[in-house]
Write a structure and sequence with these properties.
heterodimer; A: mainly beta; seven-stranded mixed beta sheet; globular; B: mainly beta; six-stranded mixed beta sheet; four-stranded antiparallel beta sheet; 54% strand
Chain lengths: 110, 114
């Protein structure tokens, strides 16, 4: 039981490039989430999903897109990367009473 | 909408001393309350949660927290800390209904000095 896995662990992007952050969970949770963590700040919600085929925006969705074709996978797409997207990205999955986090992806946009 | 305020950005304490990390929240609806811990360069790990029932909840690693509805607080405590407790601690809330989206505080960095 691996929990929530994320790839890659680290990535450096040039301004204007695109990439997809992968997230997979093996706990059969309906709910999945993407957060970003900036230095000295708490986590902010980017997008979330309540089940396969259903996604919605969180607090900071601009510049990102998501899809949820299966229960297990919830990829986050960055189009036209900008320096403001330099952050640590965490994927989480959860039941009604708690969320479980992946190890994170550290992204730098230069 | 909800908001969470962690009243201390940094808390230094000596090993084996007690510690309290303070958390206040604001919400117009009923919420669940959580504390998460983040060790350096790692993801977040659930420390404890309050869903309902007894207002004193116990978590992993000897931590406990008390929910105070009248003061809208959920302070985290440990009677005797260890070097290994050095980490960032996050308080978070989510609504009872809907997608249980978490709203986080800014975090408190706990540093344990020998």
């Amino acid at each position: 039981n691996a929990g929530v896995t994320q790839t890659p662990k680290f990535r450096i992007l040039k301004i204007g490039q695109s990439m997809t952050l992968q997230c997979t969970q093996d706990m059969n949770h309906n709910y999945m989430y993407w957060y970003r963590q900036d230095p000295g700040m708490g986590l902010k919600l980017i997008y979330y999903s309540v089940g396969a085929g259903i996604t919605d925006k969180g607090e900071v969705p601009n510049g990102y897109n998501v899809s949820r074709s299966t229960t297990e996978d919830f990829p986050l797409r960055l189009e036209l990367a900008a320096p403001s997207q330099t952050s640590v990205y965490f994927c989480a999955s959860g039941s009604l009473s708690a969320q479980y986090f992946g190890p994170g992806t550290r992204l730098t946009v230069t | 909408a909800q908001s969470v305020t962690q009243l201390d950005s940094q808390v230094p304490v000596f090993e084996e001393a007690p510690v309290e990390l303070r958390c206040n929240y604001s919400s117009s609806v009923s919420v669940y309350l959580f504390w998460y811990v983040q060790y350096p360069n790692q993801g977040l790990q659930l420390l404890l949660k309050y869903l309902s029932g007894s207002t004193l909840v116990k978590g992993i690693n000897g931590f406990e927290a008390e929910f105070n509805k009248s003061q809208t607080s959920f302070h985290l405590r440990k009677p005797s800390v260890h070097i290994s407790d050095t980490a960032e601690y996050f308080c978070a809330v989510s609504e009872w209904e809907g997608a249980q989206k978490l709203v986080f505080g800014q975090g408190t960095r706990l540093t344990i000095n020998p």
